[in-house]
Specification:
alpha/beta; 2 domains; 48% helix; globular; 415 residues; Rossmann fold; seven-stranded parallel sheet
Length: 415
């Protein structure tokens, strides 16, 4: 790919978003959030006299990776303003009022003029991109202005464009980073093979995030009452494909308590969940009643509670693994020292692979395997305890990435 092809990609992307906005709510939000965006940014920064640290995330998952570092930087450099940008509505719409960020915006779509105008307005002293975002003109302009640029919690796979014959432009993007903090040694090897040397292997900052959440855990009274003295399976971030594999086991096991937290909680999705699970009630409805006769399943219809709910689980099922995109965040559950179960699509997610290799997680190919795994974990105490201990050990060994990044910033950038 060259810059001409990249510009064609950007043009086709915005065209596709405009078409999708005719019927897709997220696409509508993507466009609406960028209307008059430079006027909004100019107004916000016109009176600012403080130095700025800019942290960019693609979406909500990347924000959770960047969040521990924001908390550290805000504490250690209180005279700096924090600018947080998102590419996706699923990040911005949830975190637009995040308390530790002084400014939260959608990132204007990449381009020569956009990058220059944005950096003229913001004038950051440090830029941090989280995990996956590679926007050529932004990165090039940051580099040309000699602004320190970090990539954190990154992970690389051989199939990515950087390592393909057509990937010269992507390889050039990597040259723009001052330092790249990666999750594993396989990524280091791939980057070294294409001449990238400014690398630090330090793991995933999400581990530090889930640890901090677990340390501040508070009970949920009504959930505690629901789970009382029962075996519990908490199913987090589920999609329809997960429901299709789970519902037979859920519907036939009235002596087990199930908590289903769907990834999307719009009205249609919640109605779909209620149809899959025959003995279920929405959490918002459960809060209004003390009667749960003939109910073994609660459908969580809010955002933010799942992180606390995993602690009530005997077994945690992580959604997404029966769909094309793959399994969701397994660390949120592993931090509570639980055995993890998920569908077969997990190979792209390092932490899921490593947890499976260490005996903490159990992938299932289909409904039959899923039910066998659940039953085996309930029946075999030794297997269960080994899996729980493996989760605990994994989280402990993987913590500390945030501190390594912060130390680099203190020693080399914000001295």
């Amino acid at each position: 790919m060259n810059t001409f092809t990249y510009q064609l990609f950007l043009a086709s992307y915005i065209f596709g978003i405009r078409i999708a906005s005719l019927f897709n709510k997220k696409a509508q939000l993507w466009l609406k959030g960028r209307q008059n965006i430079f006027d909004t940014i100019h107004q916000a920064f016109s009176q600012n006299t403080s130095p700025v640290i800019w942290l960019h995330c693609a979406s909500l998952g990347e924000f959770e990776q960047g969040r521990p570092l924001i908390e550290k930087l805000k504490k250690d450099y209180p005279h700096y303003k924090i600018l947080l940008t998102f590419f996706s509505p699923s990040g911005y719409e949830v975190q637009q009022h995040y308390a530790l960020a002084d400014y939260v915006f959608y990132l204007p779509l990449d381009g020569k003029k956009s990058a220059k105008l944005f950096l003229d307005e913001v004038n950051p002293k440090l830029v941090i991109f989280v995990k996956y975002e590679y926007w050529y003109y932004y990165l090039k302009e940051i580099n040309s202005r000699q602004i320190p640029l970090l990539l954190i919690s990154a992970i690389f796979r051989k199939s990515q464009p950087f390592f393909q014959p057509y990937g010269k432009l992507y390889r050039n993007m990597l040259q723009f980073y001052t330092q790249i903090f990666i999750q594993d040694f396989d990524s280091k090897k791939l980057l070294s093979n294409i001449g990238i040397r400014n690398i630090t292997v330090c793991g995933d900052t999400r581990v530090d995030r889930v640890l901090s959440v677990a340390q501040l855990w508070k009970p949920v009274e009504k959930i505690e009452k629901f789970c009382h003295h029962h075996k519990v399976i908490v199913c987090g971030s589920t999609w329809e494909e997960d429901d299709e594999e789970l519902n037979h086991y859920v519907n036939k096991n009235m002596d087990i308590r199930f908590i289903i937290a769907p990834h999307e909680i719009d009205e249609d999705r919640l109605r779909e969940c209620l149809s899959f699970y025959k003995h279920s009630i929405l959490y918002s409805e459960y809060l209004k009643t003390d009667s749960i006769e003939n109910i073994n399943t609660i459908i969580i219809d809010n955002i933010g509670l799942l992180k606390r709910l995993y602690n009530y689980a005997t077994i945690c099922f992580i959604g997404g693994g029966f769909g094309g995109d793959g399994v969701h965040n397994v660390l949120e559950a592993a931090v509570y020292q639980k055995p993890l179960v998920f569908g077969p699509v997990y190979e792209k997610y390092l932490e899921a692979v490593e947890l499976e290799e260490q005996g903490a997680a159990f992938p299932a190919e289909n409904t039959l395997e899923l039910e066998e795994i659940f039953n085996q974990l309930f029946a075999d105490k030794v297997l269960y305890q080994k899996a729980a201990a493996a989760s605990e050990r994994y989280i402990k060994n993987k913590s500390g990435a945030t501190l390594q990044i912060e130390n680099y910033i203190r020693e080399h950038i914000l001295k």
